[in-house]
Amino acid sequence: xxxxxxxxxxxxxxxxxxxxxxxxxxxxxxxxxxxxxxxxxxxxxxxxxxxxxxxxxxxxxxxxxxxxxxxxxxxxxxxxxxxxxxxxxxxxxxxxxxxxxxxxxxxxxxxxxxxxxxxxxxxxxxxxxxxxxxxxxxxxxxxxxxxxxxxxxxxxxxxxxxxxxxxxxxxxxx
Length: 174
What we know:
It is a single chain. Helix content is 39%, strand content 26%. By secondary structure, it is α+β, with helices and mostly antiparallel strands. The protein contains 5 helices and 8 strands. A 5-stranded mixed sheet has the order 2-4-5-7-6, covered by helices on one side. It has a 3-stranded antiparallel sheet with strand order 1-3-8.
């Protein structure tokens, strides 16, 4: 309904307008990725998208704001699922490199045209008929609030890859 859409727009705008302060706690990146797979399972199934999670290496426990990371990934993953109108595969892969955790979200959708690529992180920019254009802008702010960065690689017809890089403050064995 129109009221539900308006409520969603206002809620997303308020989330974007707030300056997020990370509340870092001990977390496991693998658990964050698995929670996103579970949260998106119904939408993925409805759109005939298979979600794969790959954490081939042992990523150490770290101090991160897991809810902020989850929200950023949720926005990216839902965009990827929605981009694959005729089904496909969405992969979330994490690995650990010298004090950094890298999370890549790859979809098998149509990709993003070069002319649009620079604008995908801009607030209120959307190519969807029903979107608010705040999902990726919010994801960017949440990642940056934790000292990280987010980038995109895409090629027409070959999907998109969003990459999140976060500093990894490793938790020692307790």
